[in-house]
Amino acid sequence: xxxxxxxxxxxxxxxxxxxxxxxxxxxxxxxxxxxxxxxxxxxxxxxxxxxxxxxxxxxxxxxxxxxxxxxxxxxxxxxxxxxxxxxxxxxxxxxxxxxxxxxxxxxxxxxxxxxxxxxxxxxxxxxxxxxxxxxxxxxxxxxxxxxxxxxxxxxxxxxxxxxxxxxxx
Length: 169
Fold this sequence. Notes:
- The chain has helices at residues 2-26, 31-36, 65-70, 93-99, 114-122, 150-168; strands at 49-56, 79-87, 109-111, 130-134, 140-145.
- With 169 residues, the chain is an alpha/beta fold.
- The chain starts with a helix and ends with a helix.
């Protein structure tokens, strides 16, 4: 009986260790949020949620459909683009700015911080553009690639509208 109890406790300890390791891997790191902090405005219920975009010079206009979404009348009043981060040499910034819609001219365009890139890679984002959306409590709510189809475009719009609606309650 004692031997089976030891085996049971050992199996339980092993399962618990596995759960702790999985939890540690899934826990959000603070690098991305810390990198966003200088660009975020204080939020209150009813104010727009905030977002950031990671891109590079090689992104074509078809990859930048998320900017069209951000200007839709149901999204624009509820979403504030806090920062545009880019990957590549600083000489790319002028070419990147020309790729972007004119309404983004007021949004800072900065090189992507290493900590933010590391966290996005850990989350599975290896390509650009990537959209990062926070909620009104300043938590990173989701990250996603630019929509590749009309269906994805509509889905992303629905998610952003839903997040905004939920946060206003």
